[in-house]
Design brief:
The protein is mainly α. The protein has helices at residues 41-53, 59-75, 79-92, 97-109, 113-126, 131-143, 147-160, 165-177, 181-194, 199-211, 215-228, 233-245, 249-262, 267-280, 283-296, 301-313, 320-323, 334-340, 346-352, 358-378, 382-395, 401-412; strands at residues 6-7, 17-20, 25-28. It has a domain at 333-417. A three-stranded mixed beta sheet has the order 1-3-2.
Length: 417
């Protein structure tokens, strides 16, 4: 999930925009209390609550208190309370574009992208020059897999504010998702020029360099991200994945260990370390890490699939039927799960991978071939597995885990990728 942009708003004080909480938060400077302060969420919640309960504010002024308390709740990680407050802000003032923007951002962070887009549409209708609403809607479209609409929104955000580093970063990430890493790197370069202290952009550019096969530049960028933010789990994971791609599993696992130390509840870090253990032949350690990743994100279909692969390599019974009950089986990669459950054939999965969007189709065909290869391997069909892994190694985007895994499997089978 990419960072969304939230605004404090105040009809209570004269306003000047400033950055707060993180680069994703925009606020207004406070003149009297902490209700629109970005420095201390707890103080903001307390002061906004006092303002709400005082009974002195009505209409838009009262809506401002609810809006600002919602931003503070979000900073504390409580999106449910944030949405409840935004509902009330919108009830009090149905023309408050910031409240629609913030609620759209909250829905986006919860994965409810259709509701997010509906709210962001309304924010833009109320304020056609609301830069952050275009940026947030771009994030929601990207999360839905509609990268072309996402790029159109980021383009508009950049047109409205050519110095909005976040919009360049998000557009770059979307180009990366489309496999256009040259454009992605150009956007990340511009984001870094505008804001050279944002660790997340260096990390994103490092991922793009890795996808382009430029591992040394990727590591340099991940190093820069870690220097700027020594607690960045994503930067340690990104550098670890790059070390893994270079064949240095020792350094890769050291970085994953640090990521897990920083955040013992990061499914990303456990997944990355588990895959490295799996490729190194430490299948028991791999299964332990992949199990932990799946437990932390039980609705993630890909984690369930990797747990299944590690279980099969450990000659353990399948648990996929049980874990799939927590997964949305109406969307991709549900056909791949059905393949492992014996409910679909590889040919049927390949047919299901077709999509009008060329980029999405390429990724889904890549995954269909790779996972069909894994299943063929467990059945002892090495020639068929080799054929499918060759297809994945040839056609998968380099940013996909399945591309790296297909190459690793070919080496294990004694085949030059």
């Amino acid at each position: 999930m990419r960072p969304t942009d939230w605004r404090f708003w105040s009809a209570l004080f004269a306003a000047t925009i400033f950055l707060g909480y993180s680069a994703a938060f925009l606020g207004y400077s406070a003149a009297a209390d902490q209700c629109d302060s970005a420095q201390d969420p707890e103080a903001a919640i307390a002061d906004c609550t006092r303002g709400i309960k005082s009974g002195k504010s009505k209409g838009r002024d009262l809506a401002a208190y609810y809006n600002n308390r919602a931003v503070a709740y979000r900073a504390r990680g409580d999106n449910d309370r944030a949405i409840a407050d935004l509902n009330e802000a919108i009830r009090l003032d149905s023309k408050l574009a910031m409240a629609f923007n913030n609620r759209g951002a909250a829905y986006n962070e919860q994965g409810d992208n259709d509701r997010a887009i509906a709210d962001l549409n309304e924010a833009i209708r109320l304020d056609p020059k609301f830069t952050m609403a275009f940026n947030n809607r771009g994030n929601a479209y990207n999360a839905k897999g509609d990268n072309d609409r996402a790029i159109a929104d980021f383009n508009e955000a950049i047109r409205l504010d050519p110095k909005l580093a976040r919009a360049f970063q998000n557009r770059g990430s979307t180009y990366h998702d489309k496999g256009d890493n040259d454009r992605a790197i150009a956007d990340f370069d511009e984001a870094i020029r505008i804001d050279p202290e944002d660790a997340s952009v260096f990390n994103s550019r490092g991922n793009a360099y890795r996808a382009r096969g430029d591992y040394d530049r990727a590591i340099a960028d991940h190093n820069a991200a870690i220097r700027l933010d020594p607690k960045s789990v994503k930067a340690f994971v990104g550098r670890g994945v790059t070390y893994h791609a270079k064949g240095d599993l020792g350094r890769a696992i050291t970085d994953y260990n640090e990521a897990i130390r920083l955040n013992p509840k990061s499914p990303l870090a456990y997944f990355a370390r588990g895959r490295s253990y799996l490729f190194a032949g430490s299948v028991e350690k791999a299964l332990a890490d992949l199990d932990q990743a799946s437990a932390l994100a039980p609705d993630n279909a890909y984690l369930a699939l990797w747990v299944e692969i590690a279980s099969q390599r450990n000659n353990l019974p399948s648990r996929l039927a049980q874990t799939s009950s927590r997964i949305d089986m109406k969307v991709w990669p549900a056909p791949v799960i059905r393949l492992f459950l014996g409910q679909m054939t590889p040919a049927a999965v390949l047919a299901a991978a077709a999509d009008p969007d060329v980029t999405r189709k390429k990724g889904q065909v890549c995954e269909a071939n790779f996972y069909s290869g894994e299943l063929s391997l467990t059945k002892g069909l090495k020639d068929e597995a080799t054929r499918l892994f060759r297809l994945a190694a040839s056609d998968c985007p380099r940013s996909f885990n399945e591309w790296e895994a297909a190459n690793a499997q070919l080496k294990t089978l004694g085949v030059v990728p």
